[in-house]
Amino acid sequence: NRGFTEMHCMSGHSNFVSCVCIIPPSDLYPRGLIATGGNDHNICIFTVDSSAPLYVLKGHKNTVCSLSSGKFGTLLSGSWDATAKVWLNDRCMMTLQGHTAAIWAVKILPEQGLMLTGSADKTIKLWKAGRCERTFTGHEDCVRGLAILSEMEFLSCANDASVRRWHISGECLQVYYGHTNYIYSISVFPQCKDFVTTGEDRSLRIWKKGECAQTIRLPAQSVWCCCVLDNGDIVVGTSDGIIRVFTESLERTASAEEIQAFENELSQASIDPKTGDLGDINAHDLPGREHLKDPGTRDGQTRLINDNGKVEAYQWSVSEGRWIKIGDVVGSSGATQQTSGKVLFEGKEYDYVFTIDVNESGLSYKLPYNITDDPWLTAYNFLQKNDLNPMFLDQVAKFIMDNTKGQTLSTSAQFSDPFTGAGRYVPGSSSGSSTTPAADPFTGAGRYVPGSASNTVAPAGGADPYTGKGAYQSAEAKVENIYFPKKDAVTFGQANPAQILGKLKELNGSATEEHKLTEDDLIVLEKLLSATCKTSAEKPTAQQLQTLWRAVNWPEDIVFPALDILRLSVRHPTVSENFCSEKDHVQFIILLLKFLNPKGKQANQLLALRALCNCFVSEAGQKLLMEQRDEIMTQAIEMKSGNNKNIHIALATLTLNYAVCLHKVNNIEGKAQCLSVISTVMEVVQDPEAIFRLLVALGTLISDDTNAVQLAKSLGVDSQIKKYASVSEPAKLSECCRFVLNLL
Description:
CATH class of the domain at 271-311 and 350-403: Alpha Beta
Structural class: alpha+beta
CATH superfamily of the domain at 271-311 and 350-403: PFU (PLAA family ubiquitin binding), C-terminal domain
CATH topology of the domain at 271-311 and 350-403: Ubiquitin-like (UB roll)
Number of strands: 31
């Protein structure tokens, strides 16, 4: 049997299905799964044997129009709601936000953790572990399709009628022109760089060695989608509801009758000249049937003839050495385009694109022209661009004027979007922001460096890796995992109260009148410090906390000693209850997040991170930080950009404390965010202590959770951390790393 037969009809959507993708076989589903995205905002997952969905993925707020599957059961979806989502089995792990318009195309790259999205905002974005790494700009209209060439290169096609080849670094390597209208779909041949495209110009085009090697016309206006099968056959789906398969193989070629039927269908197709698929047409100027006696010069070349007032289109087939009729051109008298949209040429829209034959050799050039253009200037530019004799200037200008007679400037009807039928979507532009590295924060005055005591690495030789206390012996004979899952939060408690107070008093001297603290205020803060640093048995009072709140609202350049007092006091249950309670927690979080600004002072960044870490000591603090997790993590990760190792250690500790909480509640979305942060921060930190804490966080997150293990693998975390397994110093780093790798 040369063809395909229908095996199943699957249904589960309440409206049209806009994309389909295969999820490769796994232990659980040895025959793989089928995912479909629909206009009902849902994704249905089917087994091969059942007509009803195995499960339905809900979460998008508009049509799901693109799907791509990756390793370890991950699925990436793109939607008209301008977001992409990463799914693992039946759960949404991450939402990729950043595009300003519908996401028409998504692809998971071979290198783990890398994903691509193409959007109606004309850009393509590269995501790593859920964060946008890079934006590719160059297309002049909606990006409609993506295809992967290798780990380093990919292709994109767009409504601007061009295909682009990109390097993952952001560079556009090549632009391919050939289509005369929107390109909807692109697919690559196995094991090579050749590819196929389909679009709104009724054609399937086959590209080899960077050139359009063959054009196959179809008897339908829109060729929505194409895919290349493993055997090299090409499958296309068209707007007439038919799927057609094209092959190079003689064994699989259709019967003579089927081929004849296809040709008849093609020859009966009516081609609307307004689409510009065949350039501009003036029936009176066309040659008659005798024109078809001359052979064509290249495959896919089109020729129009006037057969007793009826315009017919033919295409040259090199393999068969004959002209094949591809349709009748309807309504082609006078060549006006008043009713149509525009003609696309090299990705731009024009009112006309003329084909100018220069001489008998059959060489022809395209001349694009808009009614608003000056015919003389257009003619001059055309001759310049194509290196033609300037003597032709009058002739070309006259040709333009003769062929655009009576055309007045009218607001031409826009193309309607082929998917929605709605008017053309004109997306807004997206703006990129840049962050500059922070300036050196420490004031030359005074020698107090915030938290300097806590920067020491725990002494070697069996001391607890966090606190430096307690001895555990790691005998080489049986190395047991003492690192994770970690059960309690890690805090920053070391302090020198006298130094902190000295600095506070010194800076108070330079504070403005409205911020200045009285002698009494300073005594109140001293008492708070001794109460929370366990040097006195008194409980912190409301008055002390009010004074502290005034101090932490000091200007940024002098606030750090007050922040240090906050960092130490928040470990005390009374203080924590006060700041993290339902009543005041909003201001408290806003205050700390304000200091996590990449342009801010490093001392403040460090102390704000440490204060957040210390909040995990109390129930109230844990509850608040878990509720605000998304915002805190999003802000905190910006602190990775500096090169201050203490800030990196604090950031790693915050992530670890989140991992401890998430391990208890098993919130997979939270774990996904945490894994993304670990993966992102792991790329930039160098400090062994920070890396160690990130490894413990990773181990804690994936312990006893197969979903989290799968997700970590799909993000490529294992390849990221491998190098630490062979580090000799500190020993805890390589030991912990090996335990994590065993889980993965």
